[in-house]
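Hi F.,

I've been meaning to write this up properly since the lab meeting, where we talked about keeping a consistent format for the predictions we share between groups. The idea is simple: the sequence comes first, exactly as it goes in, then the structure tokens exactly as they come out, then a line or two of notes. No screenshots and no reformatting. I'm using this chain as the first example so we have something concrete to point to.
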Amino acid sequence: MRILVVDDDFINRKYLVTLLRPLGECDVAVNGLEAVAAYESALDAEEPYDLLCLDIMMPEMDGMQALKEIRRLEVERDILELDGAKVIMTTAVDQRKNIMEAFRAGCESYLIKPVKKDKLYEEIVRLGFDVDVAALKQ
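Output, unedited:
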């Protein structure tokens, strides 16, 4: 599994990478601009990301705009919705308006920070990834 963790906070990035590294290759980006560039590069290399963990509040380009750009790239390249990357918004923003906007923009899951390990793994399984959660909890 290829994973892109996008967060402007170093501690949050490191924490998510620590949780996700056992599942596959993890790359990081510190803002939405870097996320879109990394996503496009992965598509160009024919090594697309399977999962994105995307913060909302970031400098330069926020996670909501990055998600819209990533979904636009998928449409441009004829990547069907079910074949695109699964996106989990990982954010401190716990407002109904933002949650609804994120789902309309194309995310599949929305986790409020601080992200709990068990909840993250549950969401990854719910999204259809074949993950041995019991082994990860040990």
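Notes:
The longest strand covers residues 86-91.
The chain has a mean pLDDT of 93.

If this format works for you, I'll send the rest the same way.

G.
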